[in-house]
Q: What sequence folds into this?
């Protein structure tokens, strides 16, 4: 039996490194179209609850600010309701991915398997270009996601049925 998988890119491409989640999703679009649901969240992390609806697996990519050097890749994996969100608080958005996932957990709308890739950014002002370190890290995350999806496909995946392409 197939289970439902979504790749969710979070960010604002007009704010430099903040657009890295969208860059990763768009880079992978041709490789993953039809294999899983691809969703662009933009900067509205509060819409993550809607994006998670009907999914059993979610892969989320966003820029983070935790004080680590630009380009550092953080990977968090949560399975079967475990949600230590303290590592996901370094957000560039009003509501962090960690906050949204915690709310989904409280509302019992949390997928059974979540992978979050946070790419450490440095330039977040309106009009800033994406830094080379973050662009490089985005390519590494693309490769890791392709490997993750390959492992998931061994379990037979399908796209999330109710999610829209862009929220």
A:
């Amino acid at each position: 039996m197939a289970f439902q998988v979504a790749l969710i890119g979070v960010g604002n491409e007009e704010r430099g490194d903040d657009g890295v989640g969208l860059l990763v999703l768009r880079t992978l679009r041709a490789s993953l179209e039809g294999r899983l649901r691809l969703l662009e969240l933009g900067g509205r992390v509060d819409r993550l609850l809607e994006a998670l609806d009907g999914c059993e697996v979610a892969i989320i990519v966003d820029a983070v600010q935790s004080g680590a050097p630009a380009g550092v890749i953080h990977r968090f994996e949560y399975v079967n309701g475990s949600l230590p969100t303290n590592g996901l608080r370094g957000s560039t958005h009003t509501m962090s991915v960690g906050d949204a996932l915690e709310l989904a957990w409280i509302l019992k709308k949390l997928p059974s398997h979540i992978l979050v890739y946070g790419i450490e950014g440095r330039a977040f002002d309106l009009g800033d270009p994406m830094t080379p370190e973050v662009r490089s890290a985005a390519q590494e995350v693309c490769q890791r996601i392709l490997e993750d999806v390959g492992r998931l496909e061994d379990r037979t995946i399908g796209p999330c049925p109710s999610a829209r392409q862009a929220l």
